[in-house]
Amino acid sequence: MDSSDQRLLTACLNALAQLDNPLPPDVQSQFNDLAETMKANPDTIGNLDIIVEDYPPLNELYQAEQRRLDQNAGIRNKGLPPLPLSNEPTQELTNSAIDTFNASDSVTKAKTKNQPNLLKRLWQGIRGKD
What we know:
The chain has helices spanning 3-18, 25-40, 48-53, 56-76, 91-102, 106-113, 118-127. The chain is mostly helical. Helix 2 runs antiparallel to helix 5 (91-102) and helix 5 (91-102) packs antiparallel against helix 6 (106-113).
């Protein structure tokens, strides 16, 4: 999985977490199929972009997330040249995507995946950040 696929996968997971309603059954079924594909070959995101484009509310959030990720990359690149990104997907990103896409309600699963864990929330509380 190359860095652009990793960025697209991250944008999709972030967009799913922002939806207010569950996915329609046909779209959820496509995500379930994608999870099975990713289990067999973690280096692929299959037809993720086609699935997202077929559901306008998700596609709108997905495009916004891609722009946000691109802007953040531009900000990070203003100093020294960045270290090259590995083409190896992080196991955490891949596992998170498979778990989220394989759930019966990917929107709810994405929302719970994006909540900081207890230790992270405690540390943020100690440092005074919410």
